[in-house]
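Consider the tokenized backbone below.
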């Protein structure tokens, strides 16, 4: 599980990140990047899977767990590239990502994080 200091929680923070419109998509996962950082605060991360993606909460939660664990491992390896230059990141899972296994999801998250435009 991600430490509390890295979690994006407030609705206003999610809305502000979506408004920036800096996004990348790959393999059924979309990454929204917020504004550039001006402080040394850690980058906050949110994970979203809509009810429209799948009816069952079990499926939605599994996808969120896979994305969260992939990001946590990248954070542990300090392999996040220039994604740490942003205030917030939001990973949004779609129905195309529901059938992915952990290794595939890890590679998708890794390429998304490395491919953020500055």
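A designed sequence for it:
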């Amino acid at each position: 599980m991600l430490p509390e200091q890295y979690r994006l929680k407030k609705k206003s923070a999610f809305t502000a990140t979506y408004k920036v419109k800096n996004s990348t998509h790959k393999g059924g996962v979309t990454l929204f990047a917020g504004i550039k950082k001006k402080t040394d605060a850690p980058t906050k991360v949110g994970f979203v899977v809509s009810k429209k993606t799948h009816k069952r909460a079990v499926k939605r939660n599994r996808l969120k767990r896979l994305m969260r664990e992939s990001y946590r491992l990248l954070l542990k390896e300090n392999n996040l590239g220039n994604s740490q230059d942003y205030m917030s990141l939001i990973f949004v899972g779609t129905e195309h990502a529901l059938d992915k296994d952990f290794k595939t999801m890890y590679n998708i998250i890794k390429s998304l994080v490395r491919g953020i435009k500055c």
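The longest strand covers residues 44-49.
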